[in-house]
Amino acid sequence: MSMNAKTTSQPPMRRFSLGLQHVLAMYAGAVIVPLIVGSALKLSPEQLAYLVSIDLLTCGLATLLQVWSNRFFGIGLPVVLGCTFTAVGPMIAIGSQHGISTVYGAILAAGLFVVLFAGLFGKLIRFFPPVVTGSVVTIIGLTLIPVALNDMGGGVGNPNFGAPINLLLSFGVLALIIAMNRFFTGFWRAISILLGLIVGTLVAALLGKVSFAPFYEASWFHMVHPFYFGMPTFEITSILTMILVAAVSLVESTGVFLALGKICDRDIRSEDLTRGYRAEGLAIILGGLFNAFPYTTYSQNVGLIQMSGVRTRDVIMAAGGILIVLGLIPKVAALTTLIPTPVLGGATVAMFGMVVSSGIRMLGSQVDLNNHENLLIIACSVGMGLGVTVVPTLFNQLPQAVQILTSNGIVAGSFTAIVLNLVFNLRRKRSVADASQPQGAAN
User: Is the pLDDT confidence value at 179 over 90?
Assistant: First the structure.
């Protein structure tokens, strides 16, 4: 059944539960970016609290922009948007050198650039045949799995990393999710991730591993303040850097769009990509206006859609609404921070693994694996994506502008797949053209 035929089939409580599951799947990724950037730019606790809250609210608005498809913007797929990790380094560099107002001037300019040139970016679909799409989806899953494993141990930098209690919690959650998928069907299987997180958190609380301080300290209501950090300022180098960040994010989003198109039994055309890019550009503009972040499609939620089998847009609309509420009511948002890192890791290892499975299935069913060139494209792109993830310092001595393309495993692997496909396809097309030309035609 196509996704469009199922867009409003979920009852309200089921819709809310599934939407909350999507929020919990992407929440850690959504809040870690403002925490890193805010700390690096030495924001006050009050400013940092604003940054986290407004980021959640803007994630919700950005998600709704993408899901509410119309003739101008929105791809209409069950996608969740969040702040892009690609922007972390450039935002810190720009803010440290020129001030935080220049960061938001660059974000606004980049968003406007994407909106204006979305049609040009929409033609990128011809560079994403199944061999590229399958490779990109596989890379997405492989580069996310180390994040899940680090969380299972308690998080990077945790002095008790790998402690037996952390492993007990994480593998207990994973075992519960597996058991629910083995013995249940339908709704209970669909919310297995959510129930795993809830049960894991309750067990952790009984073991004294949950701190309720963030909930007690959070306020009940939070006002939105456009240009909270002052009016934006514009500096050409910063703008060009952020445009490059936005372009890189679109490459990653393209892979997610095409992967979801396969999952939802929908052919993604150039016009669909154009509307998706335009919605992403509008989301980036919102990030600049509200002093939040550039936004992109989150690959974390693809695994959840694949695992739950629920592909309806109304669930993602519910997730967007929940994110907006969380952004307006910090005390409610603080509840999600109570989930211990090992509990989150136990759930995400299953979700991210499903992304890898989806990529392998696409490669096996749609790509001629007896073709040596296809194998080389897969080998080099997956190798580069996984390699950069494992050895992230490899390109540290290159210029910052180049590192935007090389510091992220998903981007590096995707770029490799696209370039190699162009190299082999151009050669193949030229050979076919030469073979079809009549003898003596050149004369």
Answer: yes
Q: Is 39 exposed, middle or buried (0-12, 13-18, 19+ CB in 10 A)?
A: exposed
SS3 159: coil
Q: Answer whether residue 5 is part of any domain.
A: no
Identify whether 28 is part of a domain: yes
Domain of 92, in residue numbers:
12-366
Matching residue, tokens 């090992």: 342
Question: Among 45, 22, 25, which Cα is nearest to 35's?
Answer: 45
Q: Which two tokens stand for residue 78?
A: 């069950």
How many domains is the chain partitioned into structurally? Answer: 1
Q: Average pLDDT, stretch 143-162? A: 83
Q: Residue 172: which H helix or E strand, with range?
A: helix 164-183
Contacts of 203 (CB under 8 A, 6+ apart): 169, 172
The DSSP code sequence of 4-58 is GGGTT-S-HHHHHHHHHHHHHHHHHHHHHHHHHHHHHTT--HHHHHHHHHHHHHH
Considering the domain boundaries, does residue 383 fall inside one?
Answer: no
Is the pTM here over 0.70, yes or no?
A: no
Q: How far is Cα 31 from Cα 26, in angstroms, rounded to an integer?
A: 9
Residue 133 belongs to some domain of the structure: yes
